[in-house]
């Protein structure tokens, strides 16, 4: 567990290497799987990432039970893990729900980031909606970059300066008119992204 999770501060600051658990074999691998399942049940979304890398079949029914009541990053990682382990996009709506409704911008931006892994029609529409309407700049940024990734472009929205300028527009949170004016800029950014993708599709291969 110490090897997988590492120092708590570094885990928070740099994340973890979930693939490290895949180096284990035999009884050690089985023990690690059991310990990660227990940690997941205690609320650790990092543990879910390890179980995803292990393609843990034992964890699937527990993940499905937890998915409906889990919140925030735990819900995100369980939905990702189930999609990966079962080779499906069935659980993507859970990610979209987090993106659209979670109160924390940090959780929404995480959902915006992982959704690039599951480029369904609904995913693309939800990401465009976030670019157009999310009140937090980082969420709009991650949603834009996931859309770039899905459409085969480098996921660096800052390289598209005019679009980047539009999603960076700030507003006064106490002034509804200010917010509605900002929404016009965000909507323009989303429309410019659509035009960019359409032009990219028209380019000869």
Largest sheet: none
Rounded mean pLDDT score: 89
Q: What helical percentage do the residues reach?
A: 55-70%
* Succession of helices and strands: HHHHHHHHHHHH
Number of strands: 0
What global shape is seen? elongated
How many domains, in number, for the residues?
A: 2
Number of H- or I-type helical stretches: 12
The separation of the N and C termini measures 48 Å
Quaternary state of this entry equals single chain
Low-confidence stretches: 5-15
Strand coverage percent: under 5%
Radius of gyration: 19 Å
Secondary-structure-based class equals mainly alpha
Task: List strands and helices in order, with pairings.
Layout: H1 2-5, H2 8-14, H3 26-41, H4 45-54, H5 60-67, H6 72-85, H7 92-101, H8 105-114, H9 121-133, H10 137-150, H11 161-167, H12 176-202
Helix pairs in contact: 3-4, 4-6, 5-6, 6-7, 6-8, 7-8, 7-9, 8-10, 9-10, 9-12, 10-12, 11-12
């Amino acid at each position: 567990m110490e090897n997988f999770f590492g120092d708590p501060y570094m885990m928070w600051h740099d994340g973890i290497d979930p693939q490290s658990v895949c180096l284990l074999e035999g009884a050690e691998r089985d023990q690690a799987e059991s310990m990660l399942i227990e940690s997941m049940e205690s609320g650790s979304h990092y543990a879910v990432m390890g179980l995803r890398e292990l393609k843990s079949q034992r964890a699937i029914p527990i993940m499905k039970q937890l998915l409906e009541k889990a919140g925030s990053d735990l819900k995100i990682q369980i939905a990702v893990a189930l999609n990966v382990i079962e080779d499906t996009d069935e659980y993507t709506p859970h990610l979209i729900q987090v993106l659209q409704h979670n109160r924390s911008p940090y959780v929404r931006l995480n959902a915006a980031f992982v959704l690039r892994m599951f480029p369904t029609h609904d995913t693309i529409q939800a990401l465009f909606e976030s670019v157009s309407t999310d009140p937090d700049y980082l969420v709009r940024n991650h949603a834009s970059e996931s859309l770039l990734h899905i459409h085969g472009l480098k996921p660096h929205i800052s390289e598209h300066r005019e679009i980047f300028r539009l999603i960076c527009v700030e507003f006064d949170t106490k002034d509804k008119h200010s917010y509605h004016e900002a929404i016009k800029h965000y909507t323009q950014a989303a429309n410019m992204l659509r035009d960019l993708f359409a032009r990219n599709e028209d380019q000869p291969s």
